[in-house]
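Design job #97: recover the sequence.
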């Protein structure tokens, strides 16, 4: 499973590099558009459209990063006050919900991309699908990272349960 995570991280790092490049490109495009509009009284016709596409892509890559790094909003007061078993159960539920949300995003993202492919963006002439094709891509990362963390959480629960079992039996194993 560590090999799986290593390769998943490697692929996702390329997505993060893409997000960084897109962010720099967006800043340059918006800056140039502002300079052109206010300095030369003309603008870059496609700047808003391309910036919007970049923001959409950046948002969904960041959403997947949030799952990878556990950056999404958590309620931390309740788990600290309750037993570890309850906290572990909440984590399992969280990972299962993340997988379910990823599946829903994937399913509807595919449909949205297919529907959008029938139209073109007015300024650039690109297929409107370019706006939405990141949704299924990001959802695959969300599903895979949540599944990995679910697997790790279950393995930790088994390890803790086996350690408790060993402590109760005084180190002897039952066959």
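Job complete. Output follows.
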């Amino acid at each position: 499973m560590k090999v799986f995570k290593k390769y998943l991280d490697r692929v996702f790092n390329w997505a993060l590099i893409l997000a960084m490049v897109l962010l720099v490109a967006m800043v340059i495009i918006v800056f140039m558009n502002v300079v052109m509009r206010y300095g030369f009284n003309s603008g870059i016709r496609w700047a808003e459209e391309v910036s919007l596409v970049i923001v959409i892509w950046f948002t969904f890559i960041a959403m997947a990063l949030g799952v990878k790094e556990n950056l999404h909003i958590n309620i931390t007061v309740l788990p600290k006050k309750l037993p570890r078993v309850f906290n572990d159960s909440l984590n399992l539920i969280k990972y299962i919900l993340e997988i379910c949300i990823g599946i829903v995003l994937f399913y509807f993202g595919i449909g949205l991309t297919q529907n959008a492919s029938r139209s073109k963006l007015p300024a650039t002439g690109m297929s409107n699908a370019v706006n939405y094709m990141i949704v299924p891509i990001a959802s695959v990362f969300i599903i895979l990272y949540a599944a990995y963390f679910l697997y790790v959480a279950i393995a930790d629960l088994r390890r803790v349960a086996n350690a408790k079992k060993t402590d109760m039996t005084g180190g002897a194993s039952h066959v």
